[in-house]
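User: I'm writing a short report section on ligand binding and want a predicted complex to refer to. Could you take this sequence and S-adenosylmethionine and write out the structure as tokens? A short remark afterwards would be nice.
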Amino acid sequence: MTMPGLETLAFSEVRATVEDAELVKFARGVVLFRTTAVPEKLLELRTVEDVFFMLEHITGLGHGPDALRVLHSASLRADIATALLFWRRVRTGKRAKTWRVVSQMVGTHGYRRVDAGQSVKDALRRVFPTTMRLVDDEADVEVWLWLNGSEAVLGVRLSDATMRHRAYKREHLPASLRPTVAAAMCWLSQPTPDDIVLDPLCGAGTILIERALLAPYETLIGGDKRREAVTVAEHNVKAARVAVELHAWDARSLPLDAASVTRVITNLPFGKQIGTHAENQALYKALLKAFTRVLTPDGLLVTLTSEDRLWESVMREQGWILQKKVVCVILGQPASIFVAHRSKTGETQ
Ligand SMILES: C[S@@+](CC[C@H](N)C(=O)[O-])C[C@H]1O[C@@H](n2cnc3c(N)ncnc32)[C@H](O)[C@@H]1O
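Assistant: Sure. The structure tokens for the complex follow:
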């Protein structure tokens, strides 16, 4: 599972991590694939929120109450024994004592989500070892039922919350970016070991930390105009054990040499939680001028904002060429990641 919009990107990370990964299907926020890779490898993925051992994939489920019978018989077939072997392996031998069913439903159906969950529970009671107890929450093993239209996926969750929230993120700020989205931005920046990466509006430091953990680099530099944000970034950077130069500054006048960084990767104020749309009109122009000055001519600019129209027009005005745009959902609202360059070199990258 990944953030909606990032499915193809997440699968490119999967392919780069496990070569034999074979795509079965993309759905909203979900990538189904086959692999013979060990599950530990998949838990290292950075653009992915959760990893599951798939038990069943049902298509043509139908919207009416008959679907509940189909779900019940599919759950009876589920290979829980193998799923539990994988689970124990990634949880380093921990003995599972409890299990529960988590159900998610997208779209309209002729039955309730709880009833679908109940059908699965009723069947799985017969499949789970009798030594394990069904509970309502806080279970060792979670079976997720994901229903979207006439399709259903049933899987055992191999990842835990640290996969999506990360252990380093000790301190949070409002408008702080989800680490998986930050990792996706870094992935889109086409990382090289010579990269001098700048996040001029770094907030809690998520993007720079994700860049450090994703691939080798030369230098990471970040800053924010709020001293409080810089302090939070310092704590997170320390917890992640990465080296980042951090500054309190105004990103409109960066105290950096011209053409001194190879990548700017940043999450702009959306004008909602931070700033306003009116303020963004002038701010975006001034920021892009500053980014253009400090970036090398073949440097790449990777930005995230929900102010698509404004940002695209500012980029166009200042001679930036849009290489890629990935539409995703951030805190329930549509936003886009933009990858842009200025030169012919950028075009061929
Ligand atoms: C959307 S948040 C970035 C969140 C960050 N990616 C994270 O994960 O925490 C935008 C940040 O820009 C900062 N900011 C706004 N205007 C700025 C400016 N002129 N110079 C530097 N930072 C600024 C805000 O303080 C805020 O932390």
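A remark for your report: The CA atoms of residues 24 and 278 lie 45 Å apart. Residues 173, 175-177, 201-204, 206-207, 224-226, 229, 250-252, 267, 269, 274 surround S-adenosylmethionine (CB under 6 Å).
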